[in-house]
Amino acid sequence: MFYVQSIFILTLIGIFYIYLCLRTLVPQFKKVIYPFNLATKMALMSVIAGFGIVFLYEINAGMIYFKGYANGPSWYIGHIFLIILTLLVFTLSTLLFRMTFLFFKTFSSQNLSVELAKNNLQISGLFSTYFIILCLLITEPMIKFIDVIVDLNY
After folding, report:
1. CB 116 within 8 Å of CB 123
2. What angle do CA 79, 83, 98 make, to 5 degrees?
3. At 23, is the secondary structure helix, strand, or coil?
4. Contact 56, 91 (CB under 8 A)
5. Domain boundaries in the chain?
6. CA distance 17 to 62
7. pLDDT (tens digit, 9 = 90+) per residue, 88-117?
8. Cα separations (Å) of 79 from 26, 54, 57, 63, 105?
9. What CA–CA distance (Å, rounded) separates 62 from 14?
10. How many other C-beta atoms can be found within 10 angstroms of the C-beta atom of residue 55?
11. Which residue has the higher pLDDT, 63 or 16?
12. C-alpha distances in angstroms, 98 versus 6, 151, 154?
């Protein structure tokens, strides 16, 4: 029964996370250029992939707590914790997205918005690489930090 429940909950949380990502990211990229050109599509898809990387780290950590609470008398606490953790990680992903823009603006002589509008694939690829590397470097320590803060004793 636990596995059916966890698959159902993870499916709902995954759909909700993807919905939040698209509702946040697409308007940001529409400010640059609409309809999207190839460079903007490439940057958007890599940012969505980075959000997915962060989500996978979160689900791996969140399922530990979910398993601990799902079988007990207070099963709803596991659900609530997983939802709150998903919202925290979504906020982390959004901050990483903003930090990448700031990093790119600070350390590059190129204006990212202008270069994406000009369909510059090199700048789009560089931005995509920055974002995915930042996601891979920062997400796991942040999840461990959240784990230390929560520190639930089973």
Report:
1. yes
2. 165
3. helix
4. no
5. 2-150
6. 14
7. 889 999 999 998 988 888 888 888 889 999
8. 28, 19, 17, 10, 39
9. 13
10. 21
11. 16
12. 32, 29, 37
Residue 154: predicted pLDDT: 46
pLDDT reading at 152 higher than 60: no
Token readout for 7 is 């698959």
Question: Sign of torsion, CA 58 148 136 29?
Answer: positive
Reference 6, options 62, 73, 86, 87; nearest CA is 62
Q: Which residue's entry shows tokens 């029964």?
A: 1
Distances (CA, A) of 2 to 17, 55, 72, 139, 141: 22, 21, 11, 27, 29
More confident residue, 148 or 35: 35
